[in-house]
Design a protein that fits this description.
With 261 residues, the chain is an alpha/beta fold. It has a single domain, classed as Rossmann fold (3-Layer(aba) Sandwich), CATH 3.40.50. It contains eight helices and ten strands. The longest helix has 18 residues. The protein is globular. It starts with a strand and ends in an 8-residue tail after the last helix. Bound molecules: fructose -6-phosphate. The site of fructose -6-phosphate has 13 residues, from loops.
């Protein structure tokens, strides 16, 4: 696991965008794993700027979102399928239907989850997955207690996650759905490269567990310690509880430029 601490969201966004730009240059039909939420917004903004400058095209690429609320109407602005369009997908040149998400309105939820797993598999798997992390250590919506081998399925959101996300629903907790469909930890672990972004002090405890804690379903993101290619991009506030913070900074300063992330 590589830990990189950068001073601002712009630097974080541009480093992650460099990795995506390099991937698309060598594999134009790459499969991207797209997180919603606030953490990846700087990455998406940077990719949109590069697209507008003619430096990158997503015409042949495909995208899979991580998760979806259950039961939000198709036109609800906080439905993650709409959120990803607003934040990124509709601002660049993905082909129609190239970005998919789990179907939170399906009548048959288990069948929809199985179909989502099959779609990811049929696309050849995710080449590069962007992740955020919840204050309770979730990735996607794999809340504490999630099986480390889990696949796409329905989950109940913790109260903490609903409180955290109430800001997207006018601050009204009652408007935040109680259930979601989410890629499992086992699903996410099959992506070839994972880039997790965390910013702000509220993420510091979860980041401490993710990077330096024991692998445990109580802090689901810790499963990433078992993945061979994970890049964790942090701002100073999110890094403030890391024991080896000086070592991570020195390592990155001394890293040969050719290595990339
Ligand atoms: C969203 C997702 C969640 C978020 C996490 C952090 O698709 O998968 O795990 O990444 O809740 O959210 P933000 O970035 O809004 O702090």
């Amino acid at each position: 696991m590589e830990v990189i601490i950068l001073p601002d969201p712009g630097r974080i966004g541009s480093l992650a965008a460099d990795a995506i730009t390099a991937l698309i240059a060598r594999k134009p039909d790459a499969v991207l794993g797209l997180a919603t939420g606030s953490s990846p917004l700087a990455v998406y903004d940077e990719l949109v700027s590069r697209y507008e400058a003619g430096q990158i095209s997503f015409r042949q690429a495909r995208g899979f979102t991580l998760d979806e609320y259950v039961g939000l109407p198709a036109d609800h602005p906080e439905r993650y399928r709409n959120v990803i369009d607003t934040a990124f997908a509709a601002r660049v040149d993905f082909a129609p239907g190239a970005v998919r998400g789990p179907d939170g309105l399906a009548d048959d939820i288990p069948a929809a989850c199985a179909a989502y797993e099959a779609a990811i598999r049929d696309a050849g798997g995710v080449d590069l997955q962007i992740l955020g992390i919840g204050t309770d250590g979730h990735i996607a919506f794999n809340e504490p207690g999630s099986s480390l081998a889990s696949r796409t399925r329905i989950k109940t959101l913790t109260r903490q996650t609903r409180v955290d996300n109430a800001r997207f629903f006018g601050g009204d907790l009652d408007q935040v759905p109680t259930h979601c469909l989410t890629q499992g930890l086992g699903t996410i672990m099959e992506a070839r490269h994972l880039i997790l972004i965390a910013m702000g002090r509220s993420k510091a405890e979860a980041v401490h567990h993710l990077v330096e804690g024991a692998v445990s379903a109580m802090w689901p993101a810790t499963v990433l310690q078992m993945h061979p290619h994970v890049t964790v991009l942090l701002d100073d506030a999110a890094a403030q509880r890391l024991q080896l913070v000086d070592y991570y900074r020195e390592t990155y300063r001394a890293k040969p430029a050719w290595q990339g992330i």
